[in-house]
Structure formats: C-alpha cells, structure tokens
Amino acid sequence: MFKYAPLLFLCFLTTNSIANNKENIINNLKNTNNVSFEFEQNINQKIEKGNCIVQYPKKIFCEYVGSNNKILVSNGKSLVIKTKTSYYHYPLQKTPLNYILDKNFLVKKIYNLTENILDNSFISFIINEDDIEINIFFEKTTSNLIGWQTKDIYQNVNITLLSSVKKNEIIEEDLFTIPLQN
Fold this sequence. Notes:
The protein is of the alpha+beta class. It has a single domain (5-176), classed as Lipoprotein localisation LolA/LolB/LppX (outer membrane lipoprotein receptor (LolB), chain A, Clam). The protein is built from three helices and eleven strands. It has an eleven-stranded antiparallel beta sheet with strand order 6-5-4-3-2-1-11-10-9-8-7, covered by helices on one side. Strand 2 (46-55) and strand 3 (59-64) form a beta hairpin. The longest helix has 26 residues, at 5-30. It is globular, with a radius of gyration of 18 Å. It starts with a helix and ends in a 15-residue tail after the last strand. Mean pLDDT is 88; it is low at 1-17.
C-alpha cells in the first residue's frame, strides 16, 4: 500500500517547488513599482551596455555607454531611440517591450505558463503574444527579473541581460518624457 509513497512525496515536493517559484516571481512583480539595472544587450553579436530605469506600467529610460549618446525612452505609449545622428520613433504596442514593461501582463501570463529551470539558478518563461515570442528570465533565489530574449522589428535576435538590479527607488517622473528630434 505504501510502496509508492516515496515517489508520491517526491512528486509533491517537485510540484510544490515549481508552484513556489511561480508564486515568488508573481509576488515579487506585484510588489515592484520600479526597477533600475545595468544591462548588456546582444543583437546579432553586437554588444551594447548601459543602464535603465523601468517604471511600471510601460515606462523605461536607458542610457547606453559609449555609443554616440544613445538613449531609449518610453512614456508608456511611444518608444524613442535617439543618438547624436539618428532618431527612431515607434508605437510601443508594436514592440516586445510593450509586454516586458507591463508587470500585470507578465503576472497573468506566468500564472498559466510552464517554467523552465536553467542551471538550477534561473527560471524562464516563454510568452507568445501577437506573433511575438518573449523568453523572460528570473533569478531563482531573488525572483528578480534578470533578462529577456526577443526578436526586434527587423527579426534580429535581441538578448538583454540585467545586473545590479534595484527595486522601488525614488525616481523622477520627467525622466520618461519623449525627447524631441534634433
């Protein structure tokens, strides 16, 4: 009668661990109003670095290091990438950041997704929405968002990894004002 008890106990622990991972990530997202971080972005083997501040929902400001004064800004509706010599303006809803910067969307999706554990240290979820695939990564011990993988509007693979993550700091709201074109 109890011949399968150890196996059932192991299955319960595995299921409970997965539920706890999801629950921890969801609770962490729900309790995060903003996050700042350093990043390394790899698009088709071109690596750029910088720092960003995200304010939920859907606002981001990034400064790139050593790349022609490049900034990326979203006010929640539009996304602008500006350098000394170029200015690109996109509707945010046409980009993967529309989903990545929406913690309520992420929470709803994560509830129904299967997690993948990588190196017993990271958890990833694959989100498919409106013909966009987003592979989003969280650190297992802190439940912090630590990166994502997407394809940009030109179908280039974009891998963004986060470090030095800080949550719920005081930030200036005007930081997310769309810059004017030169």
